Amino acid sequence: YQGVYPVKGNQDRFVVEDIVKFGSSFRFGLEAGSKPEILLAMSCLCKGNPDAFLVCNGFKDAEYISLALLGRKLALNTVIVLEQEEELDLVIELSQKMNVRPVIGLRAKLRTKHSGHFGSTSGEKGKFGLTTTQIVRVVRKLSQSGMLDRLQLLHFHIGSQIPSTSLLSDGVAEAAQLYCELVRLGAHMKVIDIGGGLGIDYDGSKSGESDLSVAYSLEEYAEAVVASVRFVCDRSSVKHPVICSESGRAIVSHHSVLIFEAVSADKPMVHQATPDDIQFLLEGDEEARANYEDLYAAVMRGDHESCLLYVDQLKQRCVEGFKEGVLSIEQLASVDGLCEWVLKAIGASDPVHTYNINLSVFTSIPDLWGIDQLFPIVPIHKLDQRPGTRAILSDLTCDSDGKINKF
Ligand SMILES: *Cc1c(COP(=O)(O)O)cnc(C)c1O
């Protein structure tokens, strides 16, 4: 086993440097998916184990491929993984020009499909990788160029948060069969790179049904991969490959916590209406008075459904009165107070506290809006008390999207 860390998981320089440093004795490497990432990865891996892989994925132009080839000149163990057929021509041309013997991998589009929230890039219609037809053409072209021995790695990526080991076993078995076929066709295959997807139990449910959890442990994940690869390779009498993984979340999700303070809390206000305050309802216009009497009767009967209805009507009527200039601001406030009091009395009030926090320090928060990423948030005080308050965590800024109501 010889893993790599996909830099996109967290591109913070200090995180990447630590992974390289602590992974050095395990020949642990990095995966880059873009030009900026390969630059970061190259600079970090110069201090890593010389055998560690630098796996170059993603869309590649001449500049990206030149950088990857330059990596081999710098004695980095760079693998250029073809994601598109056209990249092969560039690799052949530039490696001859730069006089570098490249190590080539290819990314296969598997037929096995992960249909979960984070699986949209998988399957035959997925965005990345080569189809079976393209793989056959790439092998032929490499053979014609006398470079088939440079093809050494097979990569695939089922998607993030793989929900179950059965899906994983399926995908790995399909890829392992492809690997064996590449060996049969004469490639000097050494590595099967199973991509990312080792899931995180964000919501604590340990369930394969939830997009935010998975139904397996790290050991079960590893067991499923190794068993599938072994079974398929043994069937074809193919030497067992080095298994490489590109787990991102699984490596960095737990690496840090952010502790922040609720700067202030807005409690739902309960103003007690005194009979005095609402005297005007009895003296005011007919409609408001009728609404009030209906509400009063419903409260006395204990008829909760009608209470809700009459609270709405009374409020509406009084807002009308306010707009017409008949009710004063104090009177409108009294009506709100009365209505809240009724709702509370019948147990229908749902007070939600708003905790104001400073989210501007939380650079990952766009993931929460953009891809519905769940960030587990837990209180660190009063853990010996039963939580009984509903709350929203709200950003200090006046951006109305800046709130977290699921955590
Ligand atoms: C995103 C990605 C990964 C990392 O996925 P995780 O689910 O974070 O493990 C690995 N490889 C490729 C090609 C990716 O796109």
From TrEMBL:
<keyword id="KW-0456">Lyase</keyword>
<keyword id="KW-0663">Pyridoxal phosphate</keyword>
<dbReference type="GO" id="GO:0008792">
    <property type="term" value="F:arginine decarboxylase activity"/>
</dbReference>
<dbReference type="InterPro" id="IPR009006">
    <property type="entry name" value="Ala_racemase/Decarboxylase_C"/>
</dbReference>
<dbReference type="GO" id="GO:0008295">
    <property type="term" value="P:spermidine biosynthetic process"/>
</dbReference>
<keyword id="KW-0210">Decarboxylase</keyword>
<keyword id="KW-0745">Spermidine biosynthesis</keyword>
<feature type="domain" description="Orn/DAP/Arg decarboxylase 2 N-terminal">
    <location>
        <begin position="4"/>
        <end position="253"/>
    </location>
</feature>
<feature type="active site" description="Proton donor">
    <location>
        <position position="398"/>
    </location>
</feature>
<dbReference type="GO" id="GO:0006527">
    <property type="term" value="P:L-arginine catabolic process"/>
</dbReference>
<dbReference type="InterPro" id="IPR022657">
    <property type="entry name" value="De-COase2_CS"/>
</dbReference>
<protein>
    <recommendedName>
        <fullName>Arginine decarboxylase</fullName>
        <ecNumber>4.1.1.19</ecNumber>
    </recommendedName>
</protein>
<dbReference type="InterPro" id="IPR002985">
    <property type="entry name" value="Arg_decrbxlase"/>
</dbReference>
<keyword id="KW-0661">Putrescine biosynthesis</keyword>
<dbReference type="InterPro" id="IPR029066">
    <property type="entry name" value="PLP-binding_barrel"/>
</dbReference>
<keyword id="KW-0460">Magnesium</keyword>
<dbReference type="InterPro" id="IPR022644">
    <property type="entry name" value="De-COase2_N"/>
</dbReference>
<comment type="similarity">
    <text>Belongs to the Orn/Lys/Arg decarboxylase class-II family. SpeA subfamily.</text>
</comment>
<comment type="pathway">
    <text>Amine and polyamine biosynthesis; agmatine biosynthesis; agmatine from L-arginine: step 1/1.</text>
</comment>
<dbReference type="InterPro" id="IPR000183">
    <property type="entry name" value="Orn/DAP/Arg_de-COase"/>
</dbReference>
<feature type="modified residue" description="N6-(pyridoxal phosphate)lysine">
    <location>
        <position position="8"/>
    </location>
</feature>
<dbReference type="GO" id="GO:0009446">
    <property type="term" value="P:putrescine biosynthetic process"/>
</dbReference>
<dbReference type="Pfam" id="PF02784">
    <property type="entry name" value="Orn_Arg_deC_N"/>
</dbReference>
